[in-house]
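Hello,

Our lab assistant flagged a job as stuck in the queue for most of the afternoon. It eventually completed. Since we weren't sure the result was trustworthy after the delay, we are filing this so someone can double-check. Below is the sequence as submitted and the structure that was eventually returned. Let us know if re-running is recommended.
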Amino acid sequence: MAPLVRDILAFHKIDRALYDKFVAHGTNPQLARNVVTLIMWLDLIGINIVGFTRELQNHAEIVRFVSESEVVLNCLRQDSPPLSPKGGAYAEIPTISSLARESFDLRFFLFHQDMVVRGLAQLLDGVGTVIFDDGLNALFWAHEAAVRAAEEEARWKGSRPVLPPLPPELAKPYYSRGLAPMPDDCRSMFITFSKGNPLRRDEIVEYFTERWGDCIERVMMERTPPGVTPMYGRIVFTGESFIGLVLNGERLVKFMINGRQLWARKYVPRIN
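-- returned structure --
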């Protein structure tokens, strides 16, 4: 029997609280979702990071941890770990590394790019659709408050509590979105090239699949007359979550593929 949406929200209270904490301290909501999802994934592979992040209260500590997590998320899109601002060595992730029982640095994420991104995408397309839904969370906490009020009133009267009914949205069985693909527009990125330096479809597909596995459904290019190079295109990913992982809170992201630039942003369909 499938759990209810309410059960998912109750089980992931801590994860949602972390998201709210990061946003309250100025983190972009998309980046905050990705950081919390990274925390959830690290916890799944045995790194006890949830307990540590729950205790973060100081603004500077929170900002520092988010910045460190962003280094990891950005590493997942690159060919090599980013260099330290001090030069020479790779950038460090001291907090995350200190929570692991064994040697653990950015090279781990680079070597396991496809595994990590696939894990993050599954979480975002699964329980993440509930955890990061503001409307569902508002209903959940309102219902929790009503239940507590009913229980308190019953204790005061010495009677059995009459609990409020569960809202229909929370009483629905939870099913992962991954079972039903989202429309193409929700899974698309608009891409542009430098003038005179377009990329081929196979180059774009190869770039992402080498790092993230089978994540692209198709690539469409501008139709141009013979001899005219295309200036833009569109990537349709297999899941909506890949868009958020590509952008990671940015409106526009640049990739260098075979020495040529590709600029990517979320696809916004035309309204006729």
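-- support follow-up --
The delay was a queue issue, not a problem with the job. The result is valid. The CA atoms of residues 4 and 192 lie 42 Å apart. The chain has two domains: 5-131, 184-266.
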